[in-house]
Write a structure and sequence with these properties.
A two-stranded antiparallel ribbon has the order 1-2. A hairpin with a 5-residue loop joins strand 1 (109-113) and strand 2 (119-124). The longest helix is centred in the N-terminal third of the chain and has 29 residues, at 42-70. It has two domains: 13-82 and 107-154 and 275-332, Orthogonal Bundle (Myeloperoxidase, subunit C); 89-106 and 156-273, no CATH class. It starts with 12 loop residues before the first helix and ends in a 17-residue tail after the last helix. By secondary structure, it is mainly α. It has helices spanning 13-36, 42-70, 92-96, 133-136, 143-151, 164-167, 184-194, 200-206, 215-218, 222-231, 241-247, 258-273, 288-293, 308-315; strands spanning 109-113, 119-124. One of its GO terms (biological process) is response to oxidative stress. This is Peroxidase.
């Protein structure tokens, strides 16, 4: 196991790889800033590197990830001027329900590709739970191989189905040898009930969306609609928001349905509007002296020529040529 600011860093090996990339990025920028400004204090160097990490994460999220997930619906996110009256806090529906959408994107096996472009045997997801060292310590198949594999791997569809590793073996079985695991979708359903979030029909109304009147309004997939009706005894008002949201037909050009799209747009718009130092604002710009010394920092602005591919190329052995031009899209 590895220590991190997030206790979940070792939850699965690909998550550990992503944490590793961000730690390397922070240290790389700190080294560059310290070398460029030898008179700067350790605290000043740390704060500047911390600011760079925050700007980079926001830039990737708003300019690359949200357009891939929301399609044209992502347009309002990150736009507009700073508004001191906007509450930029994280909404309980977003954190408890909508942003759990990533669980359905997870695959049951982690692809790996070596530096020569050869596909290595995939790693079963359940075998990596809290066992990162077993898969990261191999020079030929460590962080780089996992990230190459992830970059060329198509994520799962956003729907009501999670892979067996998340519903049968999560934190148990093949991963930790502790017997059965926990069902992540069941946990998500219970989490929503514990947190008192509205059920699916009321949640849609809260976001200004039409109230469905039948399970056929939730999804055009007749089989899924019938299964939901059977599971909830025909009571649409009882449908949990996490289940209904995952079952919805996707918005045009996006990967999620209308409810989750509305929740994500609301949250990410408020996060930006309520943050005076949001990466896209002049107030967040790095001082000219620092940009002159470390030019890369000048590209961590809205529209700047920098993205996730640059981050990976700078912090791993993965080259830009090995990565898709649109890194969050499965381009042919």
């Amino acid at each position: 196991m590895f220590a991190s600011g997030d206790a979940r860093a070792g939850e699965n090996v690909l998550l550990t790889a992503v944490h590793t990339v961000w730690v390397r990025a922070h240290n790389r920028w700190a080294d560059a800033i310290a070398a460029a400004l030898p008179d700067a204090t350790d605290e000043a160097v740390y704060q500047a590197a911390r600011k760079a990490v925050g700007a980079a994460a926001a830039k990737i999220t708003y300019e690359e990830w949200l357009p891939a997930v929301l399609g044209p619906a992502s347009a309002p996110c990150g736009g507009g001027a700073y508004n001191a009256s906007v509450d930029g806090g994280v909404d309980v529906f977003f954190s408890t329900v909508a942003f759990r959408v990533g669980h359905t994107l997870v695959s049951d096996a982690l692809a790996r590709v070596d530096a020569g472009g050869r596909r290595l045997p995939p790693v079963p997801l359940a075998a990596t739970f809290f066992r990162p060292a077993a898969f990261l310590n191999s020079p030929a198949a460590g962080v780089d191989a996992l990230l190459r594999g992830a970059a060329g791997h198509v994520a799962g569809e956003v729907d009501i189905h999670l892979v067996p590793g998340l519903v049968n073996l999560r934190f148990g079985g093949a991963g930790g040898g502790r017997g059965g695991g926990t069902d992540l979708l069941a946990l998500n359903i219970q989490r929503g009930r514990d947190h008192g979030v509205p059920a699916y029909v009321d949640a849609r109304a809260a976001y200004g969306l039409p109230r469905p009147t039948s399970f056929a309004d939730v999804t055009a997939d007749g089989e899924t609609a019938a299964r939901l009706a059977a599971a909830y005894g025909g009571d649409l008002s009882a449908l949990d928001a996490i289940v209904g949201g995952l079952a919805e037909d996707h918005v045009a050009g996006g990967a999620v349905g209308p409810l989750f799209a509305a929740a994500l747009v609301d949250q990410f718009t408020r996060l930006a509007a309520g943050d005076r130092f949001f990466y896209a604002r002049p107030a967040a710009a790095f001082p000219p002296r620092l940009v002159a010394a470390v030019p890369e920092l000048g590209r961590l602005v809205k529209g700047g020529a920098w993205g996730l591919a640059d981050l990976l190329a700078a912090t791993t052995g993965v080259t830009a040529a090995e990565l898709p031009k649109r890194i969050f899209f499965a381009d042919p």
